[in-house]
Specification:
Elements: H1 3-9, H2 50-63, E1 67-71, H3 74-82, E2 90-94, H4 99-109, E3 115-119, H5 124-129, E4 135-141, H6 153-162, E5 166-170, H7 175-178, E6 188-192, E7 206-210, H8 213-226, H9 232-242, H10 245-264, E8 269-273, H11 283-289, E9 296-301, H12 304-313, E10 318-319, E11 329-331, H13 343-349, E12 355-359, H14 365-376
Helix pairs in contact: 2-9, 3-4, 12-14
C-alpha cells in the first residue's frame, strides 16, 4: 500500500462493530475481564488502549517497522529510550541536536552516569575515532535542528553494525513521508508526533518505532513502568492528523522551496540552510536517502536588529515555538529552542542572534513571501 493511502486508512480498530469510519476514542482507564484468566486483550490503559493501539500500528506501518510505541511527548519517548542504558555506558550524539534533547542528555542522562559525546555524525571517520569499549549507541538527528546538517544513515548504520552499536534516528523533520530510517539500517526511529504527524499544533505526542521484537519488548516494559503513555483523546487527534500527512508534506515542501529560493536573493539574508537547495553540502546524500526535503528552513540575517525586526513584524507567519503544523511558524533558536545549550556550543554550531528558523506551513507561498518581504522594509 502506498504511503498516501496508508496515511488515510492506517490500522483498523479490530473491535469496531459499529462501522465507525474514524477510530473511536476509548476513554477508559481500565477494562473488565470476562472471567478469571481471561482478558479482552486490554487490562489498563497505561499498558495499552484500543485507540492507542490503532495509532501505534499506523505509525509502525508508515515507518516500515514491526512495532511503534506512543508517548505523551517526544521528550517522553526519548526519556524512555535512554532507560535502555546503564551507568557507565557511552552514547555518541549529533552535535547539532534539538535543544530539548541536549537538555535531557546533559542534565538527566549524564546525571544517571551515562556518558555522552557530541560530534559530527556526518563524518564517518570522526564517528569511528570516538567509539569506545563502553559505547552502546549512536543518536542521530537528520536533518539537524536548526542547522540542517545531514547524516548518511546507511553509512553510519554500517559503522554501528560493525561495532554492535544501536543506531537511533530522530526522523521528526522529514516524517515517514520523506524518510524511513529503519529501511536504511537504523534500529530505532524517534518522532515528536507533536510536529508533522499531528500537524495542527493542537496536541503533544512522541513515538519510538523498531523492527526488533526483543527491543520492542524491552521498550514496552519500560513504557508501562514509567507510564509516559499517550492518552486516548490525543491518540485520536494524531490519527486524524496523519490522514492528511502526505498531502500536507507535499504542499509544505513546495512552499519551502519557493521561500528558500526567495530568501537567497535578499540582501539582508547572508545564509540560507535548506537541504532542498542544490548548493546544500548534503544535497546529494539527501536525494539518495530521502524522497523529499521537508519544510524546515534556517537563515542568518545581517544583524541582530534585522532578526528581531522580522520577529516583531510578521503577521501571517507566527512567532512561536514548535514546528510541523499547517501554520507557518518562525522561531528564534538562541532564545527559544536552544536557550539551555551552552554558549560555547552555540557559537561552534553557528547558532547566533542573527539566526532564525522557519517551519513552513500550507498557506499560499506568495502570502508568506509577502509577509517576510514587509518585515525587511
Amino acid at each position: 500500500m502506498r504511503i498516501d493511502t496508508l496515511c488515510v486508512h492506517g490500522a483498523k480498530d479490530e473491535y469496531n462493530t459499529t462501522g465507525a469510519v474514524a477510530v473511536p476514542i476509548y476513554q477508559s482507564a481500565t477494562f473488565a475481564h470476562p472471567s478469571v484468566n481471561q482478558s479482552t486483550g486490554y487490562d489498563y490503559s497505561r499498558l495499552q488502549n484500543p485507540t492507542r493501539e490503532a495509532l501505534e500500528k499506523t505509525v509502525a506501518a508508515l515507518e516500515g517497522g514491526s512495532e511503534a510505541m506512543a508517548y505523551a511527548t517526544g521528550m517522553a519517548a526519548m526519556t524512555v529510550l535512554t532507560e535502555l542504558f546503564a551507568p557507565g555506558d557511552h552514547i555518541m550524539a549529533s552535535g547539532d541536536l534539538y535543544g530539548g534533547s541536549v537538555r535531557l542528555l546533559n542534565h538527566v542522562v549524564r546525571k544517571n552516569g551515562i556518558l555522552v559525546d557530541y560530534l559530527n555524525t556526518g563524518d564517518m571517520e570522526t564517528v569511528k575515532q570516538h567509539i569506545k569499549p563502553n559505547t552502546k549507541a549512536i543518536f542521530v538527528e537528520t536533518p539537524t535542528n536548526p542547522m540542517m546538517q545531514v547524516t548518511d544513515i546507511s553509512a553510519i548504520s554500517e559503522v554501528a553494525k560493525a561495532n554492535r552499536l544501536m543506531l537511533i534516528v530522530d526522523n521528526t523533520f522529514l516524517s515517514p513521508c520523506f524518510q524511513n530510517p529503519l529501511k536504511l539500517g537504523a534500529d530505532v526511529v524517534l518522532h515528536s508526533g507533536t510536529k508533522y504527524l499531528g500537524g495542527h499544533n493542537d496536541t503533544l505526542a512522541g513515538f519510538l518505532i523498531v523492527n526488533s521484537a526483543e527491543l520492542a519488548e524491552k521498550l514496552r516494559f519500560l513504557s508501562k513502568t514509567i507510564g509516559a503513555c499517550l492518552a486516548p483523546f490525543d491518540c485520536f487527534l494524531i490519527l486524524r492528523g496523519i490522514k492528511t500527512l502526505s498531502i500536507r508534506m507535499a504542499r509544505i515542501e513546495k512552499n519551502a522551496l519557493k521561500i528558500a529560493n526567495w530568501l537567497k536573493k535578499q540582501s539582508k539574508v547572508k545564509t540560507v540552510y535548506y537541504v532542498g537547495l542544490p548548493d546544500h553540502p548534503a544535497y546529494t546524500i539527501s536525494r539518495r536517502q530521502a524522497t523529499g526535503f521537508g519544510g524546515m528552513i534556517s537563515f542568518e540575517v545581517d544583524t541582530e536588529h534585522t532578526a528581531k525586526q522580522i520577529l516583531e513584524r510578521v503577521q501571517t507567519i507566527l512567532f512561536a515555538e514548535s514546528l510541523g503544523g499547517v501554520e507557518t511558524l518562525i522561531t528564534y533558536p538562541i532564545l527559544q529552542t536552544h536557550a539551555d545549550v551552552p554558549k560555547e556550543v552555540l557559537k561552534s554550531l553557528g547558532i547566533n542572534s542573527r539566526l532564525l528558523r522557519l517551519s513552513v506551513g500550507i498557506e499560499a507561498a506568495e502570502d508568506l513571501i509577502a509577509d517576510l518581504e514587509a518585515t525587511f522594509a
